[in-house]
Amino acid sequence: IQTDAAINRGNSGGALVNLNGELIGINTAILAPDGGNIGIGFAIPSNMVKNLTAQMVEYGQVKRGELGIKGTELNSELAKAMKIDAQRGAFVNEVVPKSSAAKAGIKAGDVIVTINGKAISSFASFRAEIGTLPIGSKMALGIIRDGKPMTLDAT
């Protein structure tokens, strides 16, 4: 989360709350040109914090979800070269054999455009979304294959 809330130096780990006092994130850093507490603040979203703390309690470490794909950003040049109608998404370059992605039927050349109905604008947003889901989560992946939209179920 990017915020304009004042974050004092040393307040990394402090709560970022809304006007109702509800936790929306944990402060991590501030970019302040003059070295003070006014600038651009950054925080980890609360839903990610909940998942990470639950993993720390259960496993003693953080385990990140992954599907088993290698990919890249889908940009207009790549979309044109591959004759893909979509303009945004996670372009699949390679699927790891026997991975969750392979079991779900994902193929190289697919473009992942949604996870559980949430739009995926880039490969980075795909990785971030997968990383926030608990290990073993079931998900519906909206993809475009050969110009046609499809939905695949993955775990």
Textual characterization of the structure:
One of its GO terms (biological process) is protein quality control for misfolded or incompletely synthesized proteins. GO terms for molecular function: serine-type endopeptidase activity. It is a single chain. The protein is of the alpha+beta class and 155 residues long. The chain has two domains: 58 residues, Trypsin-like serine proteases (Thrombin, subunit H, Beta Barrel), CATH 2.40.10; 86 residues, Pdz3 Domain (Roll). Helix content is 23%, strand content 34%. The chain is globular, with a radius of gyration of 19 Å. 22% of the residues are buried.
SSE layout and pairing:
Layout: E1 2-3, E2 15-17, E3 23-31, E4 40-45, H1 46-59, E5 69-73, H2 76-81, E6 90-95, H3 100-104, E7 111-115, E8 118-119, H4 123-132, E9 139-145, E10 148-154
Antiparallel strand pairs: 1-4, 2-3, 3-4, 5-6, 6-7, 7-8, 7-9, 9-10
Assign the CATH architecture of the largest domain.
Roll
CATH homologous superfamily label of the largest domain:
PDZ domain
**Could you report the average pLDDT, rounded to the nearest whole number?**
88
Number of domains: 2
Q: Main sheet?
A: 6 strands, antiparallel
Question: What's the CATH class label of the largest domain?
Answer: Mainly Beta
Radius of gyration: 19 Å
Give the helix proportion (percent range).
Answer: 10-25%
How many beta strands in the DSSP annotation? 10
Distance between the termini: 27 Å
**Helix/sheet category:** alpha+beta
Number of helices: 4
Shape: globular
Domain PDZ: 56-147
Family: Belongs to the peptidase S1C family.
GO molecular function: serine-type endopeptidase activity
Keywords: Hydrolase, Protease, Repeat, Serine protease, Signal
